[in-house]
Amino acid sequence: MTEQGVGLVRPLPGEGVVAHLNGLLLVCATGGDQPVEDLLSALNETATTGGDGRALARRVAQVLARAMDRSIGGEPVACAVAGPAGGGAAVLVSGAAYATVSGGPDGEVRLAGHDALTWTDRLVNGPVSRVELRLPGAGPSSPYARLDGGVVTGAGLECDFTRHGDLAFPPLPPRPPQPQQQGVQPPPIGAPEPIAPRGPVVPSTVPPPPVSPFAGPLSGGGPSGEQAPPPVQPSSHVSQPLPSPLPDPGPAHHSGPQPLPPLPEPAEDRGGPHDLNPPHDLSPQHDLNPPYDLSPPYDLGAPHDLGGPDGPPSGPFEPVPHALADEEPGEATQLDAAPELEQRPMVYGVDCKNDHFNDPRAPYCAVCGIPIDQRAVVPYKGPRPLLGVLLLDDGMALPLEADYLLGRDPERAPEVQSGEARPARVTSPDGSVSRRHLRVFLENWDVNLLDLGSVNGTQIQPPGDPNFYDIPPNEPVPILPGTTVRVGVSRTMRYEPHRNA
């Protein structure tokens, strides 16, 4: 099914609810104790996380199990789901629903929910040509009806993989990166280029000489000829352009003021010549505009003072060595290398009404705060925005746009050498931070911690909880916004999820 595309999906008229999202199909009855909302949530969660038909069947089975616990003596929930899985189709039917899968090597496969005490599921080998999910009373499909994505009223679905279905809600193509994301400075916006001043409107048989940047207004009716040469006697030193006193010739000169070129960034902020996207750079060119003070001059591109084999580095996040190294020894946080410009990973998300790309699980927009109706939006793949920052206790902010490896000597770690993570050197006066202590990695919209078997461990303080808890070594642990992380004994950082439009 996956290789064949989504196919043409048509709803069947009748009483019930049918849904189609990213090739996943759902049919369920309504009324009574039918868990329609839970089934639609299972479909939406599977589609937004990129799951296949097998994942959908498992989530639906959990919903059915909970419904059976609430109503042991009642009728089973009437529903059917299907989706691509392993080159074929995963199908689950329950209650009065039934399904038909045809075109595969097993021929036509029919499944009925009433044949089982709980539900019936099967993984049908592919490639398949047609999938049909039905409830009792479903009518024939109309040749003019189609469901390319969304939730409508109906009692069944037909999916024909021999015909191509042009999606009404296709995953949008990746949004074109803005000029600042491509490393290109946009042209400066300023006043229109002024027009050179003109002399008095006086008929003349000889065109006036070219206007010089140092020449005054044309003296067509001046009282004395000693103040300006006559315009009818152009000489070589007047007609030839004067040499520019500037080293860069640039475009043609104008007598009026010119718009200023964009000012270069301070050398302390730009780093070396290859410093294209320093991790601490949260300038307006990024999607994130933190309210934190990031004004100290950090040098991420110049050669670094990495310290001796046992000694700590000289300052927080590589401050200018000659200015701050002697003033702030001891406790330090430092980035050891400036990452190259890299494309943001593509994840499934949804847009709010103001076109802000959001986590599909979020009930409110992370940028403008308006509610997001999960049943009215269709997930699509787009570049993941900045998830926030990790704000360390020394004031440094790690933008959550890539993985990090924190430790006393992170640049030698294999994760850093292979380019999987950026090094962030963190030291403490008590020496409680290991050389390779903690990895922070991003997965879809989640921020995860992985303690790398450090000696003094890593602890987390969930938001609103006064206590710290140890995280197990070598096991990923997701954290929520507002979580405080303790690295070793004395170093802490906080996950701040702020985003701006």
Automatic annotation (TrEMBL):
Residues 404-461 form the FHA domain. Residues 170-197, 310-319 have a biased composition (Pro residues). Pfam families: FHA. Keywords: Phosphoprotein. Residues 163-332 are annotated as: Disordered. It comes from the Bacteria. This is FHA domain-containing protein. It comes from Microbispora rosea.
